[in-house]
Each structure stands twice: as C-alpha cells, then as structure tokens.
Amino acid sequence: MRNYVPDLIICFIVIVSITTVRIVSQILHESLSDGPDLAAPPPEGSAPQVELSLSQLIDRKSKEYSWLLRLMVNVFGYLCIFVPGVLIYKYSKRSKYLERSERSHLSSLVKFCFSGTDGTDRPLDGGSQSGGKAKRTTAQECILLCYCLFGLMGSYLTWGVLQEKIMTQEYEGPEKRKSHFKDSQFLVFSNRVLGFMITAVYLVVKRQFRHRAPLYKYSYASFSNIMSAWFQYEALKFVNFPTQVLAKSCKIIPVMMMGKIISRNKYEFYEYLTAIMISVGMIFFLTGSADESKASAMTTLTGVLLLTLYMVFDSFTSNWQGELFKSYSMSSIQMMCGVNLFSTLFTGASLAMQGGFYSSLVFAVDHPKFVIDCVILSISSAIGQLFIFYTIATFGAVVFTIIMTLRQAIAILLSCLIYQHRISFLGVIGVLIVFLAIFLRVYCNQRLKAIKQRHQTASGGSSGVSAKPRINV
C-alpha cells in the first residue's frame, strides 16, 4: 500500500507557511491602519473608501522613508515562496523523499524543483548559428543587423519612455482628478508574467522544456532580478530618467573595484582610463542636470542609494546566470523562462499578501490610459529580452553592446525632449564623455582580442612562455 504521509507533510508545510505569513501581514495591516493618518478625510456624501493595501498605508504614514518600508514588506511577501521551499528541501533531504520507490505528481514536481531532469536538449541559441552565419551574404548580414538594431531600439526606447511616464506622470481619473501610480512591484509582476508566458509557449512548441538544471537555482537570479527592477522603478521617484540611464553605464566601476580587491584581477591601461572618463562624465552630468523638483539633499541621496542597489543586484543576476550557463548549458530562452517563472511567483505572492492586486486593478479601472501604457510596457520588455538573446547569438556581445549604448544615448535625448528635462552644457559634455569612454572600451577590447589571436597564430601553439599582448591607447 502506498504511503501518503510524506505527501501530506509537504502539503502541511505549504499550508502552515502561507497561513503564518498571511496572519503576520494582517497584523501589519491593522497596526498601520491604527496609526496617525496623514491623508485628508473623505468629503461627506462621497462613496466609502476601499481597503488600502500595505503599500498605500505606508505611503500615507511616511513620505521620506516609504520606499524602505515598502521594500521590507515586499521582501516579507517573498517569504511565501522562500519559506515553504526551504522547509520542503530540508525535509526531502532528511527523509530521502526523492529516493523512495513510489512516484506521484507531487514527488515528480519536488524532484524537478530540487534535482532537475536527465533530459537533454539541442541548444536554441547555438549549434546551427555558426554554420548559418557562414552561409549568409553581406546583404543578408546587413538586413539581419538592421532587424536587430530596430528591434532593440524600438522595444527598449518604448519601454524607457513608458517607464518614466508611469512612474512620474499623473493619470487623469474620474471627475478629472489626477493621481500617480506608485506600486512598482505590480509593474515588475506584469512585465515578468508576460515574459514567462511568451517563453513558455515557445519552449512547449519547440519541445525544449526539459533540461538538467534544478528549478530552484533560477530563484536566486529571479530574486536579484526583481529587486533590481524594483529599485530601478523606485529610483525614478527621486532622480530623472537621464540620470538613471547614465548611472547604468557606470556599472563597470564597482565591478573593477570588486575584481581588484577580491580576485586581485589585473586590468589594462585603457580599462583604468575609461573608468576614470566615466566617473568624470557622470560628475559633469550630475552637476549640470539638477532637477529643481527633486533637488533636496534627501531625495538626491535616496536616488543615488537606489541606483547603487539596482547596480548591485543587477550585477549579481548576470554573474549567477553566467554560472548556470556554464554548469548546465541551458539555452537563453530556458533561462528567461525559469527566471520569469520565479519572478512571477515572488511578486504575485507578495502582491496577494499586501492586497496590491486589488489596489492596482482599481487604479487601472479608474485610469484606462494606465492599462494601455502597462500592457505596452510589458510587451516591449518581453520582446526586448528576446531581441537581446537573438542579437548576441547572431552577432556577438560586442555588436550588442554598441547597439545598446546607442540606445541609451537616444533614450536620454528622447526623455529630455518629451519630459523637458533641463541639462546644461556641462551636463551635455558629461554625457559625451561617458559614451565616448564606452565606445573606446569596446574598441580596445576588440583590438586586444585581435592582437591575442594573431599572437597565438604566430606562436603556432607552442608551450613556451610569451609576453602578454597589450595595446596602447
């Protein structure tokens, strides 16, 4: 007779964990509701106010530090996924749940989450790419390059413009009342759920949904991904979009510092030069692009902190994904599907715990233009991710970097034109210095690779020690 006790214990762990998180969230909701209310009372005769979400209650209590409180509540909501996952993992290891002879749908799901599968796939992004690339003519190469260029430009320029609009502009609702949309987590959820649906359908159609990686390993990259996206949206409440775009170009500086301190990496002269140029350009830009509406010391410091946290989590995401690619050799579409799956679970659970779904849907019903912007934002984000993978697989990382650098420059220009950001001549010089440093870095990287290849060819693969090839800038 089959033993159902392990399955019941796992179900019990899930139910108890979710119930505990729900009870604590209700206590938080009641404690915030009982505190001092900074908002004006509703006028007499008006419709009764709907129950506010935790995020909205936090906004009513504190303005300067509301982002920090929302962050803590969001992370607490992610425990709805983390806590049951950790407990089930510990229980399955201690009880040898995965090694028992009886199989069920639940045990298969647990095995898929914590052990992966033995199935192998042919890669979606590699394999035939090199052969297909050699057979393409120059005209076909140009057509494909233009396809990738316009695809990346169109999707991410649209995404950038709508991102700033949703987080900074007011939407007109009933009775001509204007209000801001403030729940950044709902935007992350909408972006990730559409990305997951598109990639899941693609993998099912291509029969590429089995691979060796345990599903839970995507959760780390997913958590850092949603945190970086959340910090990115929140930063727009304190700094303008051009500042955010230019700050993304400075990620190389903390990466070099950490590599020097931790890994004792050695860098070329041009790498130090471009890092200094990026720093100087960023200082010029920040000096010449002060936004009078966001000019206080508190908002500036908060914006810089949010951008820093965005870069930290974003750097971890790319590094962890790189390790997964090396260890399990999955395709880029599988990576995108796995990360978006956990991102959907994390943000969905947190929104349900906070009541954020209801408040966001109420805002969407009262502001139809927000729905259109949100849908287009999610579509452009998902399509942009697909274009990233296709461009890197077809032309390599260097061409992709050049295209995205051009996209950042155009995004700054569009933001200044559409939303009327004022940038002085010194700020323009700072922008030019940053992008000049990025192009110089890409050029030097390519030239150094070419020198190394010629050096290896000339040496004929000998085992003797040779001088390290260098370039002069």
TrEMBL record:
Its main location: membrane. It holds the Pfam family UAA. InterPro entries: SCL35B1-4/HUT1 (IPR013657). One of its GO terms (cellular component) is endoplasmic reticulum membrane. GO terms for molecular function: 3'-phosphoadenosine 5'-phosphosulfate transmembrane transporter activity. It is a multi-pass membrane protein. It is found in: Membrane. The chain crosses the membrane at residues 7-28, 67-89, 142-162, 186-205, 269-289, 295-313, 333-358, 370-390, 397-420, 426-444. It comes from the Eukaryota. Keywords: Membrane, Transmembrane, Transmembrane helix, Transport. PANTHER family: ADENOSINE 3'-PHOSPHO 5'-PHOSPHOSULFATE TRANSPORTER 1 (PTHR10778:SF13), SOLUTE CARRIER FAMILY 35 MEMBER B (PTHR10778). Belongs to the nucleotide-sugar transporter family. SLC35B subfamily. This is Adenosine 3'-phospho 5'-phosphosulfate transporter 1.
